[in-house]
From TrEMBL:
InterPro entries: DNA_clamp_sf, DNA_polIII_beta, DNA_polIII_beta_C, DNA_polIII_beta_cen, DNA_polIII_beta_N. The keyword Nucleotide-binding does not apply. This is Beta sliding clamp. The keyword Nucleotide-binding does not apply. SUPFAM superfamilies: DNA clamp. Confers DNA tethering and processivity to DNA polymerases and other proteins. Acts as a clamp, forming a ring around DNA (a reaction catalyzed by the clamp-loading complex) which diffuses in an ATP-independent manner freely and bidirectionally along dsDNA. Initially characterized for its ability to contact the catalytic subunit of DNA polymerase III (Pol III), a complex, multichain enzyme responsible for most of the replicative synthesis in bacteria; Pol III exhibits 3'-5' exonuclease proofreading activity. The gene is dnaN.
């Protein structure tokens, strides 16, 4: 095996497949990167048993061949090299990497032990604009659960129906829903549950193209874009029926300025380091909302902001960390609406625009 490729192109390829490398595996082969040089291009593969990634780049191939190289060592070498031509020459179970005045001789693993890339034939697929999808995933993926005991809550529900794309995530304490119109090809409604971290990783890859093709089989979800294919396990099970949590009306509605509300919450929450609860006292008659926090060790804080209020006066306490996740998700918007039923019912934040956003949050004890 012998080929030459630019350092920048090689570094980009390694960053694309890095997410598929095993980190704590007892099988050394899973922490490697499979490289095959063939017909003017390089194929890179990684596989950690949960996800598999394949990526192609052009290269000057003098001798075809394949090798499995330690992913960590290879990445550490390439990132230190100058942006110049990098030559690989492999013989037997070693590979020599040379660039400018630097030379490295690495031991390699047997490519015959590599499991090969899974050949997946999606039963359903849909092509979506990646920029819009990335924007929407950013709004909901932090709401996915970190608990491994309920895998379904680690996923994002993706549905496309009647030219509307919708993403839903919940960790049982809060719920995030966002939807937007999209020109999708006519056909059956598309529905899949995709791991939140996986969805985010795919959309932030440096090889992402303008559109992303998502396909599903009974047990896997496949992302295809440009010269990259990303295969992950599909999360199985029934996603919670979130629609039953959304009340048709509200007792109180508060119209907030995102910038003013965010700044006030940031100041008041300084006192709430030990107790993450912030109290919201809404005075409908005066058109004011008072934010307050208290801590036995630190003291108290409060701030009053003017806002448009419809309905009755009431008070509710919310976890300010969760409220900040909502505020950060709508930071590009000017206005935010808070709808309340009472002090022990969930609070619902809403924001409309190109992407409509809803964030439901369970209250904490006053």
């Amino acid at each position: 095996m012998k080929f030459t490729v630019s350092q920048s192109s090689l570094m980009k390829a390694l960053s694309v497949v890095a997410k598929g490398m095993g980190t704590n595996s007892t099988l050394p082969i899973l922490s490697g990167i499979y490289v095959r040089a063939e017909a003017g291009q390089l194929e890179f593969q990684t596989n950690n048993l949960a996800i598999s990634i394949r990526h192609y780049i052009p290269a000057n191939v003098e001798e075809e061949g394949e090798a499995v190289i330690s992913g960590k060592v290879l990445t550490n070498i390439v990132k230190t090299l100058p942006d110049a031509a990098v030559t690989f020459e492999g013989t037997g179970r070693t590979v020599v990497i040379s660039c400018d005045k630097s030379t490295f001789r690495l031991n390699t693993l047997n490519p015959a032990d590599w499991s090969g890339f899974p050949e997946v034939a999606p039963e359903r697929s849909i092509e979506l604009p990646s920029e819009l999808l990335s924007h929407m995933v950013d709004k909901v993926y932090r709401v996915t659960s970190k608990e491994t005991s309920r895998p379904i809550l680690q996923g994002i529900l993706l549905t496309v129906e009647d030219n509307t794309i919708r993403l839903v995530a919940t960790d049982s304490f809060r719920l995030a829903v966002c939807d937007s119109s999209v020109e999708a090809a006519p056909g059956e409604a598309f529905r899949a549950i995709v791991g939140g971290a996986t969805f985010h990783d795919v959309l932030t890859m440096p090889s992402m193209t303008d559109t992303l093709l998502i396909g599903t089989t009974e047990s896997q979800v496949v992302f295809t874009f440009g010269n990259t294919t990303f295969v992950a396990r599909r999360i199985e099970g029934n996603f919670p029926d979130y629609k039953q949590l959304l009340p048709p009306t509200c007792a109180t509605a508060v119209e907030l300025s995102v910038a003013e509300f965010s700044a006030a919450l940031k100041r008041v929450s300084v006192i709430a380091q030990q107790n993450a609860s912030v109290r919201f006292d809404i005075d409908a008659d005066a058109g004011l909302m008072r934010l307050s926090a208290s801590s036995p060790e630190q003291g108290e804080s409060s701030e009053v902001i003017s806002c448009g209020i419809e309905g009755q006066s009431l008070a509710i306490a919310l976890n300010y960390h969760y409220v900040f996740d909502c505020v950060n998700a709508v930071s590009e918007n000017k206005d935010l609406r808070l709808e309340l039923q009472g002090s022990v019912q969930p609070g619902i934040f809403k924001c409309n625009g190109k992407v409509n956003y809803l964030y439901l949050l369970m209250p904490v004890r006053l």
